Amino acid sequence: MSVVSAKRLTLFDYVNYTLLGLISLVSLFPFVYVFAVSFTDPKVYVPLEFRLFPEKWSLAAYHYILSTNSFLNALKSTTFVTLIGTVLSLAVSFSFAYALTKKSMPGRRLLLGGVIFTLVFNAGILPNYLLIKELGLLNSLWSLIWSGLTSAWSLIVIKSFLESLPPELEEAGRIDGCTDLGVFWRIVIPLSMPAIATFTLFFAVAYWNTYFNAFIYLSDSHKWTLQVLVKSLVIDSDSNGVGEAGAAGDDAILPQETIRMASIVLAMAPILLAYPFLQKHFAKGVMLGSVKG
């Protein structure tokens, strides 16, 4: 029997676990309420009535939202930004970080100093907006990708992780005739799968939840991301729906609250479904990148 399993729980442990359990339950209440309202039949929905379970289940709100042009356009925009942005961010971050690990690379100290400088100082909203404008990316989905392609924190963590890999493997690859690109692709990348899985999650969540950049860079409502559309539905008082319904029918009159909650659930669902598949790499990837072994 291990020391941990043989340890007796004290009164503090019981109180601590009880409080943590209660806090977790309280934190889940808003999510449960959102799910309950989104699945509530519009005919039995009562405004401002708190229910953890729908009185009568219905998919009417989801059917309505998924049949509207504005939601489908926002879903396409968010999916495009997330998929393309995540791939490009991984490529740029790992290739740049790998180059920073090479002490023989000319200008390495200057580049590394520039990365650390951006970690401490940020240009701000207005210079970033002017930069995007001068690049001709305003009102383009590419503005959401190029403006957040990588970050100083990501580069430093990935660099620390790559430096923890055994250098003998790279030397063996070069002896076998691999070029620098071949060593990176055939040796470094396969060994970096835990970190790649971790940063895939980081980048995908960041791009999927992009709101502020989309709000200031995109003026065309047809190019809005899901987060901007959901904000318009939930917060804006003049929001009456998500667009013209293509299949809901003219006689379908739905409470705005059920539509808002259903849009929130649809915006959260992809990340909630993808996270469990990458969770096992999450802690390992971050720890390997934080301490050089």
UniProtKB/TrEMBL annotation:
Alphabetically ordered keywords of this record: Cell membrane, Membrane, Transmembrane, Transmembrane helix, Transport
Q: Residue limits of the ABC transmembrane type-1 domain?
A: 75-277
The answer to whether keyword Transmembrane helix applies is: yes
Q: Where does this polypeptide localize?
A: Cell membrane
PROSITE patterns given in the database record: ABC_TM1
Instruction: Work out whether the entry's keyword set contains Ribonucleoprotein.
Output: no
Organism annotation:
Cohnella cellulosilytica
Give the protein's recorded name.
Carbohydrate ABC transporter permease
Q: What is its main location?
A: membrane
